[in-house]
From TrEMBL, chains A, B:
Entry-linked Pfam families: CASP_dom
Transmembrane stretches, start-end: 21-40, 46-66, 78-108, 128-152
Assembly, per entry: Homodimer and heterodimers.
Descriptive protein name: CASP-like protein
Native organism taxonomy: Eukaryota, Viridiplantae, Streptophyta, Embryophyta, Tracheophyta
PANTHER family named among the record's database cross-references: CASP-LIKE PROTEIN 5B2, CASP-LIKE PROTEIN 5B3
Organism: Apostasia shenzhenica
Protein's cellular compartments: Cell membrane
Main location class: membrane
Family affiliation: Belongs to the Casparian strip membrane proteins (CASP) family.
The Casparian strip membrane protein domain, residue ranges: 7-139
Length: 154, 154
Protein backbone atom coordinates (compact mmCIF):
# COMPACT_ATOMS: atom_id res chain seq x y z
CA UNK A 1 0.00 0.00 0.00
CA UNK A 2 1.30 3.46 -0.92
CA UNK A 3 2.07 6.11 1.72
CA UNK A 4 0.63 9.53 0.86
CA UNK A 5 0.77 12.91 2.63
CA UNK A 6 -1.85 12.63 5.39
CA UNK A 7 -1.64 8.81 5.60
CA UNK A 8 -2.31 7.29 9.01
CA UNK A 9 0.80 6.83 11.15
CA UNK A 10 2.72 9.71 9.52
CA UNK A 11 3.59 13.16 10.88
CA UNK A 12 1.42 14.86 8.22
CA UNK A 13 -1.49 12.59 9.19
CA UNK A 14 -1.02 13.54 12.84
CA UNK A 15 -0.94 17.26 11.93
CA UNK A 16 -4.23 16.89 10.04
CA UNK A 17 -5.87 15.18 13.04
CA UNK A 18 -4.58 17.82 15.45
CA UNK A 19 -5.87 20.58 13.12
CA UNK A 20 -9.29 18.94 13.03
CA UNK A 21 -9.43 18.74 16.85
CA UNK A 22 -8.27 22.32 17.22
CA UNK A 23 -10.75 23.88 14.79
CA UNK A 24 -13.67 21.71 15.98
CA UNK A 25 -12.88 22.51 19.62
CA UNK A 26 -12.65 26.24 18.88
CA UNK A 27 -15.95 26.09 16.98
CA UNK A 28 -17.68 24.41 19.96
CA UNK A 29 -16.15 26.88 22.46
CA UNK A 30 -17.31 29.92 20.48
CA UNK A 31 -20.81 28.55 19.91
CA UNK A 32 -21.25 27.60 23.58
CA UNK A 33 -20.10 31.07 24.66
CA UNK A 34 -22.71 32.77 22.40
CA UNK A 35 -25.91 33.68 24.26
CA UNK A 36 -29.11 31.93 23.19
CA UNK A 37 -27.56 29.30 20.95
CA UNK A 38 -29.54 26.54 22.66
CA UNK A 39 -32.85 27.85 21.29
CA UNK A 40 -31.84 26.86 17.76
CA UNK A 41 -31.69 23.22 16.63
CA UNK A 42 -29.06 23.90 13.95
CA UNK A 43 -26.59 25.38 16.45
CA UNK A 44 -27.11 22.48 18.90
CA UNK A 45 -26.53 20.05 16.02
CA UNK A 46 -23.31 21.94 15.14
CA UNK A 47 -22.02 21.42 18.68
CA UNK A 48 -22.96 17.71 18.64
CA UNK A 49 -21.34 17.15 15.26
CA UNK A 50 -18.15 19.04 16.16
CA UNK A 51 -18.02 17.08 19.45
CA UNK A 52 -18.14 13.81 17.53
CA UNK A 53 -15.42 15.15 15.22
CA UNK A 54 -13.16 16.01 18.18
CA UNK A 55 -13.60 12.50 19.63
CA UNK A 56 -12.90 10.77 16.30
CA UNK A 57 -9.89 12.94 15.38
CA UNK A 58 -8.45 12.73 18.88
CA UNK A 59 -8.71 8.92 18.80
CA UNK A 60 -6.96 8.71 15.44
CA UNK A 61 -4.41 11.31 16.57
CA UNK A 62 -3.45 9.11 19.54
CA UNK A 63 -3.24 6.13 17.16
CA UNK A 64 -0.87 8.15 14.92
CA UNK A 65 1.32 9.04 17.92
CA UNK A 66 1.40 5.36 18.96
CA UNK A 67 2.32 4.29 15.41
CA UNK A 68 5.04 6.95 15.15
CA UNK A 69 6.59 6.09 18.54
CA UNK A 70 6.40 2.31 18.10
CA UNK A 71 7.19 2.54 14.35
CA UNK A 72 4.09 0.52 13.54
CA UNK A 73 2.52 0.47 10.06
CA UNK A 74 -1.21 1.34 10.02
CA UNK A 75 -1.64 0.61 6.29
CA UNK A 76 -3.58 -2.65 6.57
CA UNK A 77 -6.72 -2.83 4.37
CA UNK A 78 -8.96 -3.58 7.39
CA UNK A 79 -7.74 -0.54 9.36
CA UNK A 80 -7.91 1.74 6.30
CA UNK A 81 -11.50 0.57 5.60
CA UNK A 82 -12.43 1.48 9.16
CA UNK A 83 -10.78 4.91 8.83
CA UNK A 84 -12.53 5.52 5.48
CA UNK A 85 -16.00 4.82 6.91
CA UNK A 86 -15.41 6.94 10.03
CA UNK A 87 -13.84 9.80 8.08
CA UNK A 88 -16.64 9.89 5.52
CA UNK A 89 -19.39 9.75 8.12
CA UNK A 90 -17.86 12.52 10.27
CA UNK A 91 -17.01 14.63 7.19
CA UNK A 92 -20.60 14.43 5.90
CA UNK A 93 -22.01 15.24 9.36
CA UNK A 94 -19.59 18.18 9.77
CA UNK A 95 -20.50 19.66 6.38
CA UNK A 96 -24.21 19.17 7.11
CA UNK A 97 -23.88 20.87 10.51
CA UNK A 98 -21.83 23.79 9.16
CA UNK A 99 -24.24 24.34 6.26
CA UNK A 100 -27.43 24.15 8.30
CA UNK A 101 -26.00 26.61 10.85
CA UNK A 102 -24.82 28.87 8.01
CA UNK A 103 -28.33 28.78 6.52
CA UNK A 104 -29.84 29.90 9.83
CA UNK A 105 -27.18 32.61 10.37
CA UNK A 106 -27.67 34.03 6.86
CA UNK A 107 -31.42 34.08 7.57
CA UNK A 108 -30.84 36.01 10.81
CA UNK A 109 -28.29 38.42 9.33
CA UNK A 110 -29.80 39.14 5.92
CA UNK A 111 -33.29 37.75 5.26
CA UNK A 112 -35.20 38.67 8.42
CA UNK A 113 -32.69 41.09 10.00
CA UNK A 114 -32.86 39.53 13.50
CA UNK A 115 -29.17 40.42 14.11
CA UNK A 116 -29.99 44.14 13.89
CA UNK A 117 -33.38 43.89 15.64
CA UNK A 118 -32.22 41.72 18.56
CA UNK A 119 -28.74 42.80 19.74
CA UNK A 120 -28.80 39.99 22.35
CA UNK A 121 -28.26 37.51 19.45
CA UNK A 122 -24.46 37.22 19.18
CA UNK A 123 -24.41 36.82 15.41
CA UNK A 124 -20.68 37.51 14.99
CA UNK A 125 -19.86 34.62 17.36
CA UNK A 126 -22.21 32.34 15.42
CA UNK A 127 -20.46 33.36 12.19
CA UNK A 128 -16.91 32.74 13.45
CA UNK A 129 -17.96 29.39 14.93
CA UNK A 130 -19.42 28.36 11.54
CA UNK A 131 -16.26 29.46 9.67
CA UNK A 132 -14.24 27.28 12.08
CA UNK A 133 -16.63 24.38 11.41
CA UNK A 134 -16.09 24.79 7.65
CA UNK A 135 -12.31 24.73 8.22
CA UNK A 136 -12.71 21.53 10.26
CA UNK A 137 -14.69 20.06 7.36
CA UNK A 138 -11.95 21.05 4.89
CA UNK A 139 -9.32 19.20 6.95
CA UNK A 140 -11.48 16.09 7.46
CA UNK A 141 -12.33 16.13 3.73
CA UNK A 142 -8.59 15.99 2.94
CA UNK A 143 -8.18 13.04 5.35
CA UNK A 144 -11.20 11.29 3.81
CA UNK A 145 -9.88 11.66 0.26
CA UNK A 146 -6.43 10.38 1.24
CA UNK A 147 -7.96 7.35 3.02
CA UNK A 148 -10.29 6.55 0.12
CA UNK A 149 -7.39 6.86 -2.34
CA UNK A 150 -5.29 4.50 -0.19
CA UNK A 151 -8.15 1.98 0.00
CA UNK A 152 -8.94 2.14 -3.73
CA UNK A 153 -5.31 1.81 -4.80
CA UNK A 154 -4.64 -1.36 -2.78
CA UNK B 1 -9.82 0.27 -16.15
CA UNK B 2 -12.54 -1.70 -14.35
CA UNK B 3 -16.23 -1.25 -15.15
CA UNK B 4 -18.41 -0.88 -12.03
CA UNK B 5 -22.16 -0.45 -11.53
CA UNK B 6 -22.78 3.24 -12.24
CA UNK B 7 -19.71 3.63 -14.51
CA UNK B 8 -20.01 6.17 -17.33
CA UNK B 9 -21.32 4.73 -20.59
CA UNK B 10 -23.30 1.93 -18.91
CA UNK B 11 -27.07 1.51 -18.47
CA UNK B 12 -26.74 1.73 -14.65
CA UNK B 13 -24.72 4.96 -15.04
CA UNK B 14 -27.46 6.39 -17.28
CA UNK B 15 -30.13 5.41 -14.73
CA UNK B 16 -28.21 7.22 -11.96
CA UNK B 17 -27.96 10.38 -14.10
CA UNK B 18 -31.66 10.24 -15.00
CA UNK B 19 -32.55 9.78 -11.31
CA UNK B 20 -30.43 12.80 -10.38
CA UNK B 21 -32.15 14.96 -13.04
CA UNK B 22 -35.60 13.76 -11.99
CA UNK B 23 -35.19 14.38 -8.25
CA UNK B 24 -33.38 17.71 -8.74
CA UNK B 25 -36.04 18.88 -11.21
CA UNK B 26 -38.86 17.86 -8.85
CA UNK B 27 -37.11 19.65 -5.95
CA UNK B 28 -36.86 22.88 -8.02
CA UNK B 29 -40.51 22.61 -9.19
CA UNK B 30 -41.84 22.19 -5.64
CA UNK B 31 -39.71 25.00 -4.21
CA UNK B 32 -40.66 27.41 -7.01
CA UNK B 33 -44.35 26.61 -6.49
CA UNK B 34 -44.13 27.41 -2.73
CA UNK B 35 -45.18 30.97 -1.93
CA UNK B 36 -42.55 33.32 -0.53
CA UNK B 37 -39.51 31.13 -1.15
CA UNK B 38 -37.64 34.03 -2.79
CA UNK B 39 -37.40 35.94 0.51
CA UNK B 40 -34.99 33.33 1.90
CA UNK B 41 -31.40 33.04 0.67
CA UNK B 42 -31.14 29.32 1.54
CA UNK B 43 -34.14 28.39 -0.62
CA UNK B 44 -32.84 30.46 -3.57
CA UNK B 45 -29.47 28.74 -3.19
CA UNK B 46 -31.24 25.34 -3.20
CA UNK B 47 -32.85 26.20 -6.55
CA UNK B 48 -29.52 27.40 -8.01
CA UNK B 49 -27.67 24.31 -6.80
CA UNK B 50 -30.34 21.88 -8.02
CA UNK B 51 -30.38 23.75 -11.37
CA UNK B 52 -26.63 23.22 -11.73
CA UNK B 53 -27.15 19.54 -10.81
CA UNK B 54 -29.80 19.11 -13.52
CA UNK B 55 -27.50 20.66 -16.14
CA UNK B 56 -24.50 18.50 -15.13
CA UNK B 57 -26.46 15.24 -14.86
CA UNK B 58 -28.33 15.90 -18.11
CA UNK B 59 -25.04 16.52 -19.93
CA UNK B 60 -23.51 13.31 -18.61
CA UNK B 61 -26.78 11.45 -19.30
CA UNK B 62 -26.61 12.47 -22.96
CA UNK B 63 -22.95 11.39 -23.05
CA UNK B 64 -23.99 7.98 -21.62
CA UNK B 65 -26.70 7.61 -24.31
CA UNK B 66 -24.15 8.53 -27.01
CA UNK B 67 -21.62 6.00 -25.61
CA UNK B 68 -24.28 3.27 -25.38
CA UNK B 69 -25.56 3.83 -28.93
CA UNK B 70 -22.13 4.20 -30.54
CA UNK B 71 -20.60 1.53 -28.27
CA UNK B 72 -17.88 3.97 -27.20
CA UNK B 73 -15.79 3.45 -24.05
CA UNK B 74 -15.73 6.47 -21.71
CA UNK B 75 -13.16 4.94 -19.32
CA UNK B 76 -10.17 7.12 -20.24
CA UNK B 77 -8.28 8.61 -17.26
CA UNK B 78 -8.72 12.18 -18.58
CA UNK B 79 -12.51 11.84 -18.94
CA UNK B 80 -12.85 10.11 -15.57
CA UNK B 81 -10.81 12.89 -13.89
CA UNK B 82 -13.18 15.45 -15.39
CA UNK B 83 -16.23 13.48 -14.17
CA UNK B 84 -14.70 13.13 -10.68
CA UNK B 85 -14.16 16.87 -10.29
CA UNK B 86 -17.62 17.76 -11.62
CA UNK B 87 -19.37 15.09 -9.55
CA UNK B 88 -17.60 16.08 -6.33
CA UNK B 89 -18.24 19.78 -6.81
CA UNK B 90 -21.95 19.30 -7.59
CA UNK B 91 -22.34 16.71 -4.79
CA UNK B 92 -20.82 19.07 -2.21
CA UNK B 93 -22.96 21.98 -3.43
CA UNK B 94 -26.11 19.82 -3.37
CA UNK B 95 -25.48 18.63 0.17
CA UNK B 96 -24.69 22.19 1.29
CA UNK B 97 -27.89 23.51 -0.30
CA UNK B 98 -30.08 20.73 1.12
CA UNK B 99 -28.61 21.16 4.62
CA UNK B 100 -28.84 24.95 4.73
CA UNK B 101 -32.47 24.79 3.57
CA UNK B 102 -33.17 22.05 6.09
CA UNK B 103 -31.65 24.23 8.84
CA UNK B 104 -33.96 27.11 7.92
CA UNK B 105 -37.04 24.85 7.65
CA UNK B 106 -36.38 23.24 11.05
CA UNK B 107 -36.03 26.76 12.48
CA UNK B 108 -39.40 27.77 10.97
CA UNK B 109 -41.19 24.57 11.97
CA UNK B 110 -39.78 23.97 15.47
CA UNK B 111 -37.58 26.70 16.92
CA UNK B 112 -39.56 29.88 16.21
CA UNK B 113 -42.90 28.32 15.14
CA UNK B 114 -43.30 30.49 11.99
CA UNK B 115 -45.10 27.59 10.22
CA UNK B 116 -47.94 27.76 12.76
CA UNK B 117 -47.94 31.56 13.12
CA UNK B 118 -47.82 32.37 9.40
CA UNK B 119 -50.00 29.93 7.42
CA UNK B 120 -48.96 31.67 4.17
CA UNK B 121 -45.52 29.98 4.57
CA UNK B 122 -45.90 26.67 2.69
CA UNK B 123 -43.68 24.67 5.04
CA UNK B 124 -44.79 21.23 3.80
CA UNK B 125 -43.72 22.14 0.25
CA UNK B 126 -40.34 23.35 1.56
CA UNK B 127 -39.93 20.05 3.42
CA UNK B 128 -40.75 17.80 0.46
CA UNK B 129 -38.47 19.87 -1.80
CA UNK B 130 -35.62 19.42 0.70
CA UNK B 131 -36.22 15.65 0.96
CA UNK B 132 -36.00 15.47 -2.85
CA UNK B 133 -32.75 17.47 -2.72
CA UNK B 134 -31.32 14.97 -0.20
CA UNK B 135 -32.30 12.10 -2.52
CA UNK B 136 -30.54 13.90 -5.40
CA UNK B 137 -27.46 14.19 -3.21
CA UNK B 138 -27.60 10.46 -2.37
CA UNK B 139 -27.59 9.56 -6.08
CA UNK B 140 -24.81 12.02 -6.98
CA UNK B 141 -22.79 10.76 -3.98
CA UNK B 142 -23.03 7.21 -5.40
CA UNK B 143 -21.85 8.50 -8.82
CA UNK B 144 -18.99 10.43 -7.17
CA UNK B 145 -17.77 7.40 -5.20
CA UNK B 146 -17.88 5.16 -8.30
CA UNK B 147 -15.93 7.74 -10.34
CA UNK B 148 -13.33 8.25 -7.61
CA UNK B 149 -12.93 4.49 -7.21
CA UNK B 150 -12.45 4.14 -11.00
CA UNK B 151 -9.84 6.93 -11.01
CA UNK B 152 -7.95 5.62 -7.98
CA UNK B 153 -7.87 2.03 -9.25
CA UNK B 154 -6.34 2.92 -12.66
Amino acid sequence: MKVLIGSPGTVSGLMLRLGQCLFAGASIALMVSAAGFSSYTAFCYLIASMGLQVLWSLGLGFLDIYALRMKRDLHSPVLISLFVVGDWVTATLSLAAACSSAGVTVLFARDVGFCRSYPQLECSKYEISIVLAFMTWLLIAISSLVMFWLLASV
